[in-house]
Amino acid sequence: xSKLSVAEAAxxxxxxxxxxxxxxxxxxxxxxxEHGMKYVLIDEPxxxxxxxxxxxxxxxxxxxNTQLKERVRKLEKKNSRLRDQREEMLVLEKQxxxxxxxxxxxxxxxxxxxxxxxxxxxxxxxxxEETTQEVVDVVExxxxxxxxxTFLRLKAYKPxxxxxxxxxxxxxxxxxxxxFRKEGKIYVDPxxxxxxxxxx
Length: 200
Fold this sequence. Notes:
By secondary structure, the chain is of the alpha+beta class. The chain is 64% helix and 12% strand. It has six helices and six strands; from the N terminus they run βααββααβααββ. The protein has a three-stranded antiparallel β-sheet. β5 and β6 form a beta hairpin. α1 (6-13) packs across α2, α3 (47-118) packs antiparallel against α4 (125-140) and α5 packs antiparallel against α6 (159-172). The longest helix is centred in the middle third of the chain and has 72 residues, at 47-118. The chain is rod-shaped. It starts with a strand and ends in a 12-residue tail after the last strand.
């Protein structure tokens, strides 16, 4: 707090002495009287005190900002590592699944080839080859229907029974969704339907 004479206060505030006296009377300025002379009391915060608070505040903010940036960097690095691990796991799982299906298909093809060659000995070599190829096609496209002829060959029934069953299927065309004609051939879909009631 500084102590100024009325003249000094008038010069500081760029007003007249009378204006300073009026402010003192109104109480907007404090004053003291020493040795018969009136002095005006003025609060003047020092510049160092005003600047000390912001400097400390900015220093704190900068420190916090640096720490947050470091945390973000670590989290981004961790996230990137986890994403890479997940992609690697997905690739490995895909390869495993593909290998399982490949091995299964190879085994199934071998079994079907054995069935068509050993259990259908009365067929000519050409018929066995055609049947084997039809079966391989079925294995490769599991979800598609197959010809009734191929289906019955795989059952290895005697000719008389095969003919009876074939006639049963023919009678059901247009009446049973399990049996249908396509391009002049009778088709069945053993992957979707059960035909045990027609095979007795």
